[in-house]
Design goal:
Elements lengths: L6 H33 L6 H29 L2 H17 L2 H13 L10 H8 L2 E5 L6 H12 L2 E5 L15 E3 L5 H25 L9 E5 L2 H7 L3 H11 L5 E7 L13 H7 E5 L1 H11 L3 H10 L3 E4 L2 E4 L11 E3 L8 E3 L6 H12 L7 H7 L8 H13 L4 E3 L6 E3 L3
Parallel strand pairs: 1-5, 1-6, 2-3, 2-4, 4-5
Antiparallel strand pairs: 6-7, 7-8, 9-10, 11-12
Helix pairs in contact: 1-2, 1-3, 3-4, 4-15, 7-9, 11-12, 14-15
Length: 415
């Protein structure tokens, strides 16, 4: 089942949803009719009528399940229908050559109403910690760097898989647990609990001035692993979650899933949501928009923005962190043979970036949709027409040029 629908796919999915819905009702009606008919039949015929009735009922049940899955994929059916009508109207009122650019602009012009651009201000206002969820390459380290620079305090990192140069971008950061030294992490977390108790005593005796200058920013990388390996980890996160902010001890726990169990809070989901701001990057943010918020348009908006767009609790956030840690978008030109550099626009999303990178690595070659599907996992299950829409969009931005038209349309890199 497609997890994210482009407007050009909505018509097909809505048709499938309607067929499955009416087929399920039809199966129920036919099954009941067969049962009524079987009452008046001979005893030798009744088993066959009953079998046909049960088979028809099972077929209707399967169609009903299919309709349910399609409904979850589409999210808000009314909104999906409106987007589908917009795409149909564009296709029937404008030339095909302009369709690719127009359909792609449906999401580009839309902005969520509760958009935030300063996640740190949001976090500080909530007086909570951060649970950062994202997959490999989603920008967890970059966001952590940005967060630590804004919140301040002595930085301590718990990372059992840290390489020598990892976390080097944080000034005066103490990295504990390299080479899988979980014993060192467990011991340090135990010391953190003692420090927190000392701060409680100091503040109780001398107020906030007594703990001034003792601010700390604690980063726990891949927290589910620490839960399995460190006895103090669960107590550590619970104590800091409920009391840490009051005593200037800020924690940022990183994981690749947003369940309470992954943060050592089994059966205590309330603590996760009441004490942490959940920052969901990449696919986790898009999944939250689709499954929890039931907003396919928000999902498409997140997808179009790449790493710049993510979810902070239930609020969409747009933040350009291209100058933090990851460096600039300047890449070498491979087709000229010289030392020239090409400045790529920062608004490229991850899908456009894959195409541009392919073009720079294959100067002069024409990229077709089927070739891209074979070369990249991200495009493997995508519709070829959607890929050609991206080709045309890149050409419109001045990146490359389209070759041929219709089903044969391809794209070639050029400065």
């Amino acid at each position: 089942m497609t997890s994210s629908l482009h407007p050009s796919q909505l018509h097909q999915h809505l048709q499938m949803y309607a067929r499955a819905k009416w087929s399920s009702w039809g199966g129920l009606i036919v099954s009941l009719s067969l049962l009524s008919l079987g009452v008046s039949q001979k005893p030798s015929v009744k088993p066959w009528v009953l079998a046909a009735s049960v088979g028809t009922l099972e077929l209707g049940r399967r169609h009903r399940q299919t309709a349910k899955l399609l409904s979850e994929s589409l999210g808000d059916i009314d909104r999906a229908s409106r987007l589908n009508f917009q795409a149909w109207a564009k296709a029937n009122t404008q030339p095909t050559a302009q369709l690719a650019l127009t359909v792609g602009a449906i999401d580009a012009t839309w902005q969520p109403e509760n958009l935030i651009t300063d996640p740190v201000e949001y976090i500080q206002k909530k007086q909570k910690h951060v649970a950062l969820v994202g997959g490999t390459g989603d920008g967890k380290s970059t966001f952590t760097q940005f967060l630590s620079s804004k919140i301040g305090g002595r930085v301590i990192v718990y990372d059992s898989d840290a390489k020598p140069d990892d976390w080097s971008w944080i000034d005066r950061a103490d990295v504990i647990g390299r080479k899988g030294n979980f014993k060192a992490i467990d011991s340090a977390m135990g010391k953190d609990l003692e420090i927190l108790e000392d701060l409680v005593q100091l503040r109780g005796e001398g107020g906030d001035n007594a703990i001034a200058g003792r601010e700390r920013f604690l980063i726990a990388e891949e927290f589910p692993i620490l839960v399995d390996e460190c006895d103090n980890s669960t107590h550590w996160i619970k104590r800091h979650a409920k009391r840490g902010r009051r005593y200037k001890q800020f924690i940022c726990a990183l994981a690749q899933n947003d369940t309470a169990e992954n943060f050592g809070l089994q059966g205590d989901k309330d603590t996760l949501y009441s004490c942490f701001v959940l920052v969901r990057l990449g696919q986790f943010g898009r999944d939250h928009a689709r499954t929890k918020l039931k907003d396919p348009q928000l999902e498409q908006w997140l997808k179009a923005g790449g790493k710049r767009r993510f979810m902070v609790d239930d609020c969409p956030c747009e933040l350009d962190l291209s100058n933090w840690g990851a460096g600039s978008m300047v890449q070498p030109e491979t087709s000229g043979g010289g030392n020239e550099e090409v400045q790529l626009p920062q608004e490229l999303n991850e899908y456009e970036q894959i195409i541009v990178t392919w073009g720079q690595e294959h100067p002069g070659e024409i990229l077709k949709a089927r070739v891209l599907q074979q070369a990249s996992q991200q495009f493997k299950k995508d519709d070829p027409e959607n890929i050609r829409i991206i080709f045309a969009s890149l050409a419109d931005k001045g990146l490359g040029e389209v070759v041929d038209s219709g089903d044969r349309l391809g794209w070639r890199w050029s400065k």
